[in-house]
Each structure stands twice: as C-alpha cells, then as structure tokens.
Amino acid sequence: MKISVLVPVYNEINTIDEILRRILATPFDKEIIAVDDCSKDGTRDRLLELKKTMPELKVVLHETNQGKGGALSTAWKNATGDVWIIQDADLEYDPAEYVKLLRPISEGKADVVFGSRFLVGEYCRVHLFRHYLANRFLTFLSNVFTNLNCTDMETCYKIFRREVAQKINIESKRFAVEPELTAKVAKLRCRVYEVPISYSGRDYHEGKKITWKDGFSALWAIFKFSVLR
Ligand SMILES: Nc1nc2c(ncn2[C@@H]2O[C@H](COP(=O)(O)OP(=O)(O)O)[C@@H](O)[C@H]2O)c(=O)[nH]1
Ligand SMILES: [Mg+2]
Fold it and tell me: Residue 225 needs a FRET pair 20 to 30 A away by CA distance; which of 24, 37, 187, 188 works?
C-alpha cells in the first residue's frame, strides 16, 4: 500500500523541515506532495532545496496565494497513491499517528478515516476554549445535515482510499474545504471511521491563521454542500 501525503504549505519556514522529517520517518511506501501556496517567508526555496535530497518529495508551486482548499485541489491532481492523507505543514498533527489512522483502511473496514481531537487520545493541549466551542458548533451543524456522527468535522486529518478521493472535486479555496470534504464524503455514502489523535494546537502568536471569518465561511459551506446540493 502506497500512501500519498498531501501537504498544503503557506509560510511555514519554522516547521517545514521537521514536518517532512516526521513524514519520511513513517513506515510506509510513500510520496509527499507539497503545494507551496505562494509563501513569502522563504519556505518556497527551502522546499526546492529539500527536494534535491528527498526522492519521495514532489513540490508544486502556486504563483498566487489560493488558500488551503486551493492547495489541496492542486495536490489532488498530483496524487497517485492508494491512500491519500492530508497533512498540515505546522506541527499540530503528528505523522507518527499514521499507523493508527490507517488501520481501519488496511483492515478493509473503512473508505475514509478522520482523526478526531475530541475523542480521548493520549494527550491534547489545553487551550483556546472559544475555538473549541466554535468547532463543536460547526461539527454539530454539519452532522445535522450530513447525518454522520462525527466528533471533529474540522480536523485536518482526513484520509481517503484513492477510489473515494478521486470522486471528490474540491471547490472551496480556503478553510471551508473541511466542511466541503465532509459533506461530499457523506453524499458518497462510504464507510467513515474516526480515530482519536493527539493534538498540539498552536496559538495565534505561534502562527495560527484561521479566524472567526473562516467560521462564517464554514457555516456557509455546510449549507452550500449539504443542503443546496
Ligand atoms: N492560513 C493559510 N494556510 C494555508 C494557506 N494555503 C495553504 N495553507 C496551509 O494549510 C494548513 C492549515 O493552515 P493553518 O494556518 O495551520 O490552519 P489552522 O491550524 O486551522 O489555523 C497549513 O499547512 C498551511 O500552511 C493559506 O492561504 N492560508
Ligand atoms: Mg494549523
């Protein structure tokens, strides 16, 4: 089983080396598709340099900033593995958990796996209560319309068997890609599993970029992709 690790990257110079090192350390045959979303902090050049010593790494460059959804849509066009894993380039989610996350797929039970920050895992950073509330609310609303009982719709860890991923056309450019993917998975009526993950959330001063405005676009995406379609 070959995995494709899809990494949307925007201004992640402090973490890009370490995240790639952690992905490479996972015990799978793999390709890594890093999509640089027009970074301004040197990440772009660093990726091109790292590529020289990492045969598994493919780098795709955006000429303008498009957002996480735009970066994933580009990654989607380049992935060839049997299982596709979305991996943020900050260090909030740890590739050491791929083994655990992939188990429902390798055991033939699941088509899609979500890593949940709200199922009890081994550890979780205690912080940003209002962020947590917003997450719970958006997940609740998404569940009402998709009829999936997810505990963490906004999770970055969304993992797909290739056959399922290839049925999904990503339209959202920015963070609304999370409710969009969830709604589209629900419409495909495939087998969705959740696995508890450890989460090392970063704070705004550490580079977190999502804001309350993204909460509103997530609300709109829930209606658009679950109700209007
Ligand atoms: N914020 C932001 N992240 C992007 C963009 N394009 C790609 N990304 C990547 O998408 C992932 C999620 O972004 P992040 O800021 O960590 O989101 P958050 O942790 O949900 O606040 C990271 O790997 C980013 O580098 C973009 O235009 N803006
Ligand atoms: Mg993040």
Answer: 37
